[in-house]
Structure formats: structure tokens, C-alpha cells
Amino acid sequence: MNSNTQNAKIKSITEKTLIIGIDIGSETHYARAFDWRNYEYSKKPFSFNNDEEGFKAFSLWMNEIAEKHGKNTVIPGMEPTGHYWLNLGAYLQEQGMKPVHVNPHHVKKSKELDDNNPNKNDRKDPKTIAALVNEGRFSYPYIPTGIYAEIRSLSNLRIQTQEEISRIKNRIARWFSIYFPEMKDVYKKPDAKSGMMVIKKAPLPADIKALGVDGVNKIWRDAKLKGAGLKRAKTLVEVAERSIGNTEAPGSARIEIRMLLADYEIYSKRMDDLMTEIEKKLSEIPYIDKLLEINGVGIKTVSCFVAEVGDISRFDNPKQLQKLAGYAIVSNNSGKHNGESRISHRGRKRLRYALYEAAISVIGKNPEFKSIHEYYLTRTKNPLKKMQSVIAIACKLIRVFYMILSKGVDYDAQKMLNDIVRPESAAAA
After folding, report:
1. Alpha carbons 107 and 293: distance in angstroms, whole number
2. Domain 6-134, CATH 3.30.420.40 — does that match?
3. Which tens digit of pLDDT belongs to each residue from 177-203?
4. Where exactly are the structural domains of the chain?
């Protein structure tokens, strides 16, 4: 029997089970204890600090109640409130318990049903959480350990660094729109290497005019930069000469862009270092190299997949991964009405986005995936819209990733194409 079904969860709760509802706070947590009939053992909420001393006091409190009432199993339930639950969850796991999560949306709705009041309450919340656990409305959180914990942390740092780089690039683009709007006529990207090198030494159009064509070209020659020469230098000087950019406060404008470029270099270097470390850690995961052999699948996709999924062996089938990513198909049917099916969007947002980006990449770079995409769009029976096809490709990638990482098989492009049941091939058979 699948242990993740609601019936299985309910069955796991017996008269020997102690259910602990925990309201998570940034500094202080509150807990209440119940049995399988929702009978409360705690006279009032037990408060404990979010530190080692508080955790030990909480553990002692639970053990005393369990011993007094003859309980041999403890299920601590909590809402996954930001990151504040992580340390407590890890501590409980170390104590041999399996902490569980309840959906915050379910907690809110259940409180409204109880007393028609959705307000947060340190006494009411633990009771609601415990009741949801008792009904089997919980999930088992995955707290990665070892190499998987390392990769998740590094992946989070990479995403944070990328967000900083994006913010800096936006600020650089804003600076150009004010002081040198014609720059976009020379470079499509504000962070183009040759352009950055010139702006670093000659930030404003007046500075570039003063350098002249030879001066600009000398910057690139001294740096031994390929792909930039006299023609590009001439174009840059020409647009600088006719620039309509703001000429007020030139001193502060120069300081601003130089600070932005310095920040950009710092975070770009940080990103390079992180990617090197991520690649090193990923090499410790079996069969990762087989994933990277798929044309269109890169190190960022793989690192995000491993960071969000963790140990692949904890999944019985790819459908569980599909659900985790929020790609589970839900139908909108009512009576005689058959609505359009859609994906749930209930799952790990980062994983869903990474798989979507990977699907776009393989459609553009991988011949077999491109062929599958075209088939989905043009098939006679139930052709898909473009977005639907991309999502279908993302789900197919989930199955491919699962088989490779769990079985160690090689990626087979021909098998991918053979999996498509075309009308003509079906008729021939």
C-alpha cells in the first residue's frame, strides 16, 4: 500500500500514537498534545524557544506525555512557515521522529469552520494542525542530508546570486537610458564584454568622444579581445558624438556606473565560483554525467533538479516527481460538463520553472524533442497548444531524468521517438 495516500496516513495513526500540533514562530513555538480521538493531554499550549535549550525542553515535554499515556509513537505536525521550521524539523528527525507538514491553506480554512474566525491564535493553531494530522491531511517533508543538502544550499546561493546579477544589470540598463541611451544601438545587451571595458574607462559619451576611435580600439587590443575592432570602435564613437544623454552631474554619473560595474564583476565572479563548486558536488551523484549528455540539458537545470528533488530513490515512480513539480494534471469536470484539464501548480515552484526552461531548451536544441513537440502541435487527434506541448515535454523530461538517475540507463534518442504513437504507424500495425 502506498504510504503517501490519505488512507495509509490515517491507518498509521493508532491508539498508541501521540499527535503534537506545533505553531511555528520566528523565536517562540507553541505545542499541544492529542491522542487519536482528538482528546487533548496538554492543559495549555507548551511554549519553547527556537534554540537548543528550547528544543530539549520540548522533547522532554513530549516524552513525559507519551510515557504517562502509554504512547510509543509521536507525530509532530507543523505548518512549513518560511524557514523557521527547518532547525526544529532537523532536530526532531535526529531524535528518531518523522515530523509532518500540514497545508497552511487547510489550517486557515479549518479554523474558519471551527469558529468562523480565521485570526491567528497561539492556542487555536496547534489544535487545528493536530486535527489535520489526525485526518491524514499531512505530508512528509524532505530534509536533505549529506551531498543533497550541499547541492540544495549551493543551488539556493546560485539563485540568490543570479537575482543580484539581474538587479545590477537592470540598474546598468537604467543608467544607460539616462546618460547614454544610444548604447543600445551598438550593443543589444548592456553587459556586453567589449562595451563594459570601454565604459569602465570612459563612462560618458563625452569621455568616449575624447578617447576617439583609436583610443577605444586600443582598450580592446590591450585586453587581446577578439570580435571587436576598428569598425565597432567607429560605430561606438559615432553614437557617442550624437548622444542625447543627460549631461548634468557628470561626476556622480561616473561614480555610479563604476560602482555598478564593480558590483557586477563581484557577483559574476561569485557565480563562476559557485558553478565550479556545484559541478564538483554534482559529480558525486551517480549517473549525473548521463543527464548532461542530453543535448539541451545543462548544468543549471541538473543542479536545480537535484537540489529540489534530492535522493531519487525516495520516489517510487515519475508521477510522484510530476506531482512534486506541480505538473500533476487536474480536470475541471462537473456533472455533464467536461472542462479543460490543467496542471495543478501545487508543488515546488523552482523545480517547475527549471523543467519548463529545460523543455524550451531541448525543443530548440534537441532534434528528437523538437520532433515530438511538432507532433504534439500537429497531430490529427487532440493537437496541443504551444504551451501545453512545452508542459508535456517538461513531463517527458521528468520521466527521462527519473529513469536515468534511478536505473542508470543511457539516454536513447530513438526510443524517445518510438514512444510516440503516430496514426500512420498504428494503422500499419
Report:
1. 44
2. yes
3. 999 999 998 998 888 899 999 999 999
4. 6-134, 149-279, 288-428
